[in-house]
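re: ur question from yesterday

yeah so i grabbed the chain u mentioned. its 293 aa long if i counted rite. heres the sequnce exactly as i have it in my notes:
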Amino acid sequence: MLTSGTVSVSQMMAIARLAFEQGDIADAATDARILIGGLLNLSTTELLTRSDRVLEDSEIMLVEAAIQRRVQREPVHRILGRREFFGIDLELSPATLEPRPDTEILVDRILHHLRQIVAKKGSARILDLGTGTGAIGLSLLHECPQAEAVLCDISSDALIVAQRNAERNELAARVHTVKSDWYQQVSGQFDIIVSNPPYIVRNVISSLAQEVIGFDPILALDGGVDGLDAYRTIAAGAAPYLLEGGMVAVEIGYDQRESVCLIFTSCGYVLHEAARDYGGNDRVLVFARDAAV
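ran it thru and got these structure tokens back, copy pasting raw so excuse formatting
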């Protein structure tokens, strides 16, 4: 173990980066910066301006333990226990999927429609199916003060985290959590139904990176034999829960656009909008109810 009085912030950053490089961590420098900044409560700027600050023994022990966890493939934000997502701060837990930047595209795309609904009606109701941390629903509420949301999940532990995240971001007054297997315990109607459902093909899960299969809950990954089980359930059950002019927005796997579109169109929906992720892959589909149905 290193001792206090000998290790500065910049030296610890170098130690972490080297350990990650030797451990074949893909973006060693970025992970070192995020991890140490988070553990020491230092912003990116402060990591530079206070780089010569000498660490205490307790800080060294904390960082060294975290470095070993990352080398063993635990994701940085899992170690920190929180993650920033679309401008809000989210607590993570073993019961929740870690929100990824690509999911912010779903929030961004549906936010435009949400604001249009509010401009027309003065308010809006959102149903976030399989909410996990509450990332999607809470982000929409944060951006749209006139909206309220029901956050739904089959996991009681996930809902506890979602509720804490609502309180953490001062959104609890506009949030209601429901334990439900998709729509089973949901009541009422909504302007927007959103979901980032499990969509990984079951026999592919074992080949995913250790950062995923070792730490994300399988329930949030396993989309069934063909990866499409959740979309069938969402599409088949949405109509009674949609207000007139309502929309359904879902995140999809990179190769699922055609299949998911077919599922929704067979249930009486039309594709209103599609968006790709930062890697250029199909990632978000927004559906409206077919007026002819």
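noticed a couple things. The chain has a mean pLDDT of 95. also The two ends are 68 Å apart (CA to CA).
anyway ttyl
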